[in-house]
Design brief:
Helices cover 28% and strands 26% of the residues. The chain has 15 helices and 30 strands. It has a 7-stranded parallel β-sheet, with helices on both faces. The protein has a 6-stranded mixed β-sheet with strand order 9-10-11-12-13-14, with no helix packed on it. Helix 1 packs across helix 3. The longest helix has 22 residues. The protein starts with a helix and ends in a 23-residue tail after the last strand.
């Protein structure tokens, strides 16, 4: 029995089939999935999503916190890996601070909203209370701000750059985070809020010769494209009349899943209080801004949906609550599950063996999940060394929380809980200048180490050198390139350099940068 067979067990479960049928009906249902806990909720959702007749329905899944939402999102990626699965975070760098936006979070929000507004295939959005409480731009306005560029198009470059500035893009020497663009000769670099990496548009005169996605760290092209859509941060510089709540934005055929109605309400009320306190502190005073603050924003009361109204809008759609106890008002249907969380073994393998054997005696099928297949081999070796024959199915994907499903007679454990390792979630991040080299990191470099210059790509670090610049000595980083080209980088421009982070043991190709870079300070 493999992962596909395991998922089919949930897909064929009569309760899962009934849930899928209910949320196809026009009348909004309020369903409670009693005692559905841990990653069992991810499996059950996957079963509903995979029903053959369930294709018209979109889904919004609201977890109690940003961390829980990220873990749930990762579990769904492992189990069903749908193309249109989106993590939808809050816009801000710090909770309770509404002054600076997180560019990666804005990118993720913009990507999700744009794809939902575009219609097409059913989609899944995974989020949490603070994120869904922010207003979003109406679909018509959202699609109206997209700039499309195709190969062989003829561009008015000056007008295009004016449009970028009008949409809030910043012109820089090089792009390192969403919301920036750079123009050097016939090359236009633009970091859209709708893509994880920036685009490079090569022009022949005013005609688009080629379009590529490139890595902002190595400056190397990754793949060629025929067309790109440039998406600005549509959540700023937009009139309040063009903003609505997320439930109003989402298609009518959207089912909403949540882990606790009361926590949803309390966290949104807390955010309203946090915003009120923030606005009182701001009180018309201009806050200090530094380079690390991110994108500044004048967020206000009109940008947040009032909690009572948002809850009312949620209840107009199909709502499915899961967990230990229901706090959802007016439940119309309840399905009972018998799941419990993976026990703590504290790395005591005799306890683990006894536990697994007890479930095997009850005819339960055992699955052990691990992102790294070597961990599964390690576990098998431990059982062998202890002269124990344990029958389990290794599954080389990660889920966050192991569980026992007594209804389907399944034991699904995770290696990180067995070995007591911290399981870190993964969220797509945009590149930003925080990844650039610092003075402290520079001291750790040794001559011969590979580094990446944002404009010139991979070279070999060759130490520091003092140079006479206009009668003043300045320290510079010396980088060697192919054909003995040398690039000297001013110590004040370290943000343009980063350590090469390729695969371990891999020797990168050193670039040739041409004589124009010979002994120049960049």
């Amino acid at each position: 029995m493999n992962l596909e067979t395991l998922l089919e067990k949930y897909q064929s479960d009569s309760r899962i089939k009934s849930i899928a049928e209910e949320i196809l009906l026009p009348q909004p249902a309020r369903i409670y999935l009693k005692n559905l806990i841990g990653s069992a909720a991810s499996f059950s959702f996957s079963g509903v999503y995979s029903q053959p007749e369930h294709h018209p329905v979109n889904h919004l899944i609201i977890l109690d916190s940003a961390e829980e939402a990220a873990y749930f999102h990762n579990s769904l990626e492992s189990l069903i890996n749908p193309v249109d699965l989106f993590y939808f975070p809050s816009s801000f760098k710090k909770r309770k601070d509404f002054s600076a936006l997180n560019s990666s979070h804005v990118m993720l929000r913009t990507e999700a909203l744009t794809r939902f507004a575009g219609g097409g295939n059913r989609k899944i959005m995974v989020s949490y209370p603070e994120a869904i409480q922010e207003k979003v731009v109406v679909p018509k306005t959202l699609t109206g701000h997209i700039i499309s560029i195709k190969t062989n198009d003829t561009l008015n470059v000056d007008e295009l750059m004016e449009k970028f500035v009008g949409y809030g893009f910043e012109r820089t020497d090089f792009v390192y985070e969403p919301g920036q663009f750079a123009m050097r000769g016939g090359i236009l670099d633009i970091y859209s809020f709708g893509n994880e990496k920036p685009y490079r548009v090569e022009l022949f005169g005013n005609e688009v010769d080629s379009i590529r996605i490139f890595d902002p760290e190595s400056q190397l092209s990754e793949r060629k494209l025929l067309q790109v859509n440039i998406i600005p941060n549509i959540e700023i510089n937009i009139d309040h009349s063009d903003k609505i709540s997320l439930p109003e934005f989402l298609p009518d055929n959207t089912a909403i899943w949540l882990s606790d109605w009361n926590i949803l309400r309390e966290r949104m009320l807390d955010q309203q209080e946090d915003l009120d306190l923030y606005l009182q502190r701001r009180d018309g005073k201009k806050e200090e801004q530094n380079d690390e603050d991110g994108i500044r924003t004048e967020f206000g009361e009109k940008d947040l949906v009032e909690t009572k109204l948002l809850l009312e809008l949620i209840l107009k759609k199909h709502v499915i609550e899961f967990g230990y106890a229901s706090t959802l008002p007016g439940v119309t249907r309840q399905y009972e599950f018998h799941t419990k969380l993976q026990p703590a073994f504290n790395r005591q393998f005799d306890l683990l063996i006894r536990d697994l054997k007890s479930w095997e005696a009850k005819k339960f099928a055992t699955f052990i999940f691990a992102e790294n297949p070597k961990q599964l081999e390690r576990l098998h070796s431990i059982f062998t060394d202890l002269n124990q024959q344990i029958n389990f199915t290794p599954v080389p994907v990660a889920i966050h929380e192991g569980f026992i499903d007594e209804d389907l007679k399944l034991v699904c454990y995770t290696d990180h809980q067995v070995f007591q390792r911290y399981h870190k979630y993964k969220v797509k991040q945009a590149y930003n200048k925080s990844k650039a080299l610092t003075i402290r990191a520079l001291k750790e470099l040794q001559p011969g180490d590979y580094v990446v210059h944002i404009d010139h790509g991979v070279g070999v670090y060759s130490g520091l050198q003092k140079m006479d610049i206009g009668g003043r000595y300045q320290e510079a980083v010396r980088i060697l390139y192919k054909d003995n080209d040398i690039l000297y980088v001013n110590i004040n421009s370290l943000h343009k350099i980063s350590r090469y982070t390729g695969k371990e043991g891999h020797v990168p190709k050193v670039n040739k940068i041409g004589s124009d870079a010979w002994q120049k300070l960049k």
